[in-house]
Amino acid sequence: MIRALLMSALFLSAGSASAETMKLAVTTSFENSGLADILLPQIAADTGIDIELIVVGTGQALRLGEAGDVDAVLVHSKAAEEAFVAAGNATHRREIMYNDFVIIGPGDDPAGIAQAGDATEALARIATAQAPFVSRGDDSGTHKAELALWNAAGIPTEGDWYRPVGAGMGAALNTAVGMGAYVLSDRASWLKFGNKDGMSILFEGDPAMFNQYAYLPVNPARYDHIKAGAAARLEDWLVSERAEVLINGYRVADEQLFTFNAER
Amino acid sequence: MGDLLAGLTEAFRMIVTLDAELIEITLRSLRVTLTALAISCLVGLPLGGWLAVRRFRLRRAVIATMNALIGLPPVVVGLVVYLFLSRSGPLGVLGLLFTPTAMIVAQIIIITPLVASIAYQAMRDLWSDYHDLLISMNATRGQRIVTLLIDARRALLTAALAGFGRAIGEVGAIMIVGGNIDGATRVLTTAIALETGRGDFALALGLGIILIALALIVSWGSHWAMRTERQGTW
Amino acid sequence: MVAALPLTLTGATLRRQGKTLIGPVDLTLGRIGVTVVIGPNGSGKTSLLRMMHGLQRTADGHVGWSVADAIARERQAYVFQRPIALRRSVLANLMFPLRLRGASRAQAEARARAIADRFDLTAMLAQPAPSLSGGEMQRLALARALITEPEILFADEPCAALDGRATRQIEALLAGTAAAGTRLVMATHDMGQARRLASDVIFLLHGRIHETGPAKTFFAAPATPEAEAFLNGDIVE
């Protein structure tokens, strides 16, 4: 009986060992975009690498990389990434692609942000109208981008109307839909989101709202078990022409989500 | 209302079409939880019996601690297990993080106090009935515990089912230590959390309905097995 | 085999929370006979039996067997006033003491079936023990106590809750057991039963042996006024 249990425990821990696997921490917004479902099978076919995605916020993704629990990370928060490289946790930072953030709100747009000229003005209108605004509040890349926008607009993020929920993108969108609030989201997460319920994109297009994704292979000098070879091959694939075609060609609801911008 | 209906439809569709991914994550949920439950019972049931039979100075403290541990927040358990199993943690060399084994470990920690506590309560009551007889018959401490384990089996089934219910429905800890990796550590609850995050409520609810159905089937099945094993009033 | 009897109590005393329940008691129990313990309610009949059997530890004095305590423990059995049914079948209840002593399943079952026959339990072997009637349950308890062939059997009011027919049945089984050579120590409040079974009597009062002697002498001419009053059915305090 006991031996059977141990055997089954060992069996469960074995996992799939046939192909080479590596662990990649990615952000919720990337996973929610659905792009991974397009890229991963092609990566497996081209390189033989089975990628196990760990989907977390940027903050946690970087912590996993720092602890050596993943082989590479794909995130979007430039300042945090540069600090990560500076601390020696990754060998370098490679920009791959970008998408953009959009401001979602109720269809009747009580703050009138659709007429705003730029992101600063759109946020100012929300603050002036005291219209409810849901913030991720989870130290994720999206949250940091949102804070940077408020900061640039010179508006303090406090008051009853500002609601940090401390949750992932999907949960934050669910909350915003539930209370008819404005919310900053990456375009991909919003387009793939299934519970829109009368909400729509009210403001978009300001270059300040571009969202750069970068690939950071974890420093193999830190931990023996880091699969540096696989991580390097994945990087080569991510900046290849094949990746460029797939990334630029990926469409949801007839909209291009990501723009490939890696330098070769 | 529309979402609820869509959830039922989706659950029905996935079951009827024997959706391959659904079957995979359902089986994984069962494997992880049943393995964790088996180990928890192996530890918790004899522990409950031992606490029922044995009188020692710190007994009350141990029981109070055990009852308090029932309320351990799974997220905290997950975080602690993560920190231990992380490559930079004390058990990092085992390379167990983001594997089903890590999820089993977390679930064992979460449900063992519950299993042990319910088992203890059942066997404490039985022990007050049996005490004089077993002492009179000169049963050793081990024999006393085994006798209680056998004769309290109905109540111990309840303990196991409570442990199963808590483990199969747990999401916070296994999300952290398992990573919800598609094809490796994704189970019903983490898939539900994922689909909820994606706003696909119908799929999330469909998976939820399947999870509930699974818990019901296991409960009915084990009660049925216990009753037909031997007719009786106990 | 060296006999565990005689049993010798010297100054044996039982206390609970500072209150003396029993003793000091000085007493020797020989190898044969039926000793019946009588006395008013609360005089300590049950406590005396439990102390002799070792279920209760003495606060003072000594309960001594003629062999080492560990061996003596294997040679005694006890039937409780309220029989304790293991939540198992009647057969499993009978096999239980033998299984505790390491007998094989087959061996235990064979002996259980044999004793069930003697105790008129064969028809209910497969039944769950908790579903038995009071009389059946007490027969089971007696059979289960005797299956290990103890040298001495303690029985605490074994017929207290039984009707006349069941009482007669149990008494016959007890008499047969004593006749077969098992030493019997029995507490009862039924004077008729005491007269029918006893070879000698212990009359307890306030936790001490007030009078003891052969049954014939005791019932014909009790030496103390309290014993006489008790036998007459008066209230003795």
Automatic annotation (TrEMBL), chain A:
Species of the source: Jannaschia helgolandensis
Record Pfam families: PBP_like_2
Keyword line: Signal
PBP domain: residues covered: 16-241
Residues of the signal peptide: 1-19
Keyword Transport carried by entry: no
Full protein name: Tungstate transport system substrate-binding protein
TrEMBL record, chain B:
UniProt keyword Lipid biosynthesis present: no
Residue spans crossing the bilayer: 32-53, 65-85, 91-116, 155-181, 201-221
CC annotations in GO: plasma membrane
Keywords: Membrane, Transmembrane, Transmembrane helix, Transport
Sequence ranges assigned to domain ABC transmembrane type-1 in this UniProt record: 26-222
SUPFAM superfamilies, alphabetized: MetI-like (SSF161098)
Highest taxon in the source lineage: Bacteria
Membrane topology, from the record: Multi-pass membrane protein
Locations listed in the record: Cell membrane
Recorded family membership: Belongs to the binding-protein-dependent transport system permease family.
Record's protein name: Tungstate transport system permease protein
UniProtKB/TrEMBL annotation, chain C:
PROSITE patterns (alphabetical): ABC_TRANSPORTER_1, ABC_TRANSPORTER_2
Keyword terms, alphabetized: ATP-binding, Nucleotide-binding, Transport
InterPro entries: AAA+_ATPase (IPR003593), ABC_transporter-like_ATP-bd (IPR003439), ABC_transporter-like_CS (IPR017871), P-loop_NTPase (IPR027417)
Gene3D superfamilies: P-loop containing nucleotide triphosphate hydrolases
Coiled-coil portions: none
Protein name: Phosphate ABC transporter ATP-binding protein, PhoT family
Residues in ABC transporter domain copies: 7-231
UniProt entry tagged with the keyword Transport: yes
Molecular functions (GO terms): ATP binding; ATP hydrolysis activity
Pfam families with a match to the protein in the record: ABC_tran (PF00005)
Domain of life the protein comes from: Bacteria
